[in-house]
Amino acid sequence: MGILYRSSVNRKPNDSMRLIIITFMGVFLGFLIGISFPTLSLTKLGIPSGLIPKIDEMYNTDIKAGSSTQTSQNFPSTTTGSGDKNNSHNRNGTSEIWVPSNPRGAERLAPGIVAAESDFYLHRLWGNPHEDLNTKPNYLVTFTVGYKQKENIDKAVKKFSENFTILLFHYDGRTTEWDEFEWSKRAIHVSARKQSKWWYAKRFLHPDIVAPYDYIFMWDEDLGVENFDAEEYIKLVRKHGLEISQPGLEPTRGLTWQMTKKRDGLEVHKDTAERPGWCTEPNLPPCAAFVEIMAPVFSREAWRCVWYMIQNDLIHGWGLDFAVRKCVEPAHEKIGVVDSQWIVHQGLPSLGSQGETQNGKAPWQGVRERCRKEWTMFQSRLANAEKAYFKSLGIDPSNSPKQ
Ligand SMILES: *[C@@H]1O[C@H](CO)[C@@H](O)[C@H](O)[C@H]1NC(C)=O
Ligand SMILES: *[C@@H]1O[C@H](CO)[C@@H](O)[C@H](O)[C@H]1NC(C)=O
Ligand SMILES: *[C@@H]1O[C@H](CO)[C@@H](O)[C@H](O)[C@H]1NC(C)=O
Question: Quick one: where's region Disordered (predicted)?
């Protein structure tokens, strides 16, 4: 600290002696405060006062090195090791805190200190912690991106107001380049090479981490957003009670499914007619209770369920669109497509080109085959799991209501 102050004074040699004295007084005062505060609180924690200067030194070394808080994580074990007097009550369990209603693994903590959920809010490294956050965005948007799509992503991000936390998953390892965009500095960047959207989602969007967000947008990188506004979209989703939704897709683009095509003159729609034979029942996918995986929007509650449904090897996510209906009830009312805020699926090759040539097949072919394989796997796992569950209850699955 002292070194920092002095060097900044040296840069302005004309400054008077007074400044130096004030600086020193400031440093000294800061030192006193720094010393006295931990003394108060640490002695309350039962840490011997002889240890405090040592602890202070330990933390300071840490700050100067600019390293992480590794040493502070060792802190509790240091105290239990040396501060533990021969208290029989500690061993006996009578005064040990034991709260079965705490999250798993945290049962020994007093419930008042348990923070079961977190967020992506960025904090500063100084000042009062409770004054760190000016705003707490209510919504989260994630894009799985490669740097080649930067122009498209830049346009897309600008459709999301400051009420959104922006989270980019980078599959090509390029992250710092994005800082050419102003918004990139407030975005969270997660980089892992050649992974897919649902791989990231499973690993970085745990429901307890994204808990503060009312809605979570999990979008691909190849979406055209000219006719889309995120705040308006959320208004409609709330109004129509959609727990899982997507914007309508511009219909001239040879789309696979009728359900996700934008319809003119509507705010939202929740069902459709398909080609003959495509739907076994009108309330089931792909005629209702269905959105695609390219641009889904989940409510907090729906995502909490869907996250658990995503198996760790389901990385492309094919098949998920047919299954998410199991997470909301009644699905044909709570899943829908927003028509008046719509997007264009540009269908740019992205992750497909990240595959590898195998057995003489082009990379994109290998990726596509993998997608199909996942779909089959996921479908049979789901069916088998339900069969096993009904069997364990002694119910004949063929008699159970179709879900
Ligand atoms: C700690 O407790 C054990 C028995 O509970 C006793 O035998 C031992 O002497 C104690 N040690 C100290 C340092 O008080
Ligand atoms: C340990 O706990 C039991 C009850 O669980 C109690 O009867 C006993 O007195 C306790 N022993 C000590 C040393 O606190
Ligand atoms: C952000 O959210 C607040 C509160 O819901 C709202 O008043 C405001 O209009 C939103 N900002 C934008 C840009 O829509």
Answer: 66-101
